[in-house]
Amino acid sequence: MNILRHIGSYALMLSKTLKKPEKTRVFWSRFVREVSVMGIGSLPLVLIISFFIGGVIVIQTASNISSPFIPAYLIGFTTRQSMILEFSTTVIGLILIGKVGSSIATELGTMRITEQIDALEIMGVNSKSFLILPKIFALVFVNPLLTIFSIGIGIVAGMWVGDLTGLCPMKQYVLGVQYSFKMSDVTYSLIKSIVFGFIISSIPAYFGYFVKGGAVDVGKASTSAVVYTSIVLLFMNYVITQLMLL
Known about the structure:
Elements: H1 2-17, H2 24-39, H3 43-64, H4 73-113, H5 116-122, H6 127-165, H7 170-178, H8 183-209, H9 215-245
Helix pairs in contact: 1-6, 2-6, 3-4, 3-6, 4-6, 4-7, 4-8, 4-9, 6-7, 6-8, 8-9
C-alpha cells in the first residue's frame, strides 16, 4: 500500500508539474541554468567512464577471441554494439542517478525544510512547475547528447587501446565499427536516453519535494531517490528492450 501511495503522489505531482509555465522567460532562464549544471557539469564524469569502458570492452573481447578463424574486426563491432545498446545509456544513466539525481533530491529537500517552497506557494506560484519542470526538460534534452558523446568517446577509446596494445589494428577496428551498422540501434539508444532523462529528473524531484523533517531526512530522501530511481530505470530498460529489440 505504501508503494501505491507513492505512485499516486508521484502522478499527482507530475500532473501539476507538467503544466505551461506561468512566465516563459523565467522558465527558459532556469532551463538554461539546469542544462549547464546537469549537462556540462556531467561531461568530465561521462568522458572518464566512457573512455575506460571502451578500453575494457576491447581488452575483454580480444582476450576471448583466441581462434585465428575469428576476424579481428569483430572487436570493433562488439565495442560499437556494446556502447550503443547498453553502456552509454544504462550504465551512464545509473552513474547520473548518483550525481544528478541525488543533487536534485538534496536541493529540493533543502528548499522544503527551509520553507522556501512554502514561501513560493504563499505567493501563489506553482512551485512544482517552477522548480521541477525546468529540471525535467533540461535532463530530457541533455541526456541524449550525453549518450551520443559517451558512444563516441567509448568507440574512439577502444580504437586507441586496440591499436596501442596491438590487440586490434586500427584498420580492422574501423572496419568492425562500420560493419552491419543499423541506424535503428542508435534510435533505440536515444529513445532510452530520453526516457531515462525523465526518470532521473522526476523521481528524485518527488522524494526531495515531499521531504518532512530536518537535515537528516534530506539525506534519507536522497538515498531513497537513488535506490528507487535505479530500480525504475533498470525496469524501464527491460521494458524498452523487450518492445524495440524483440
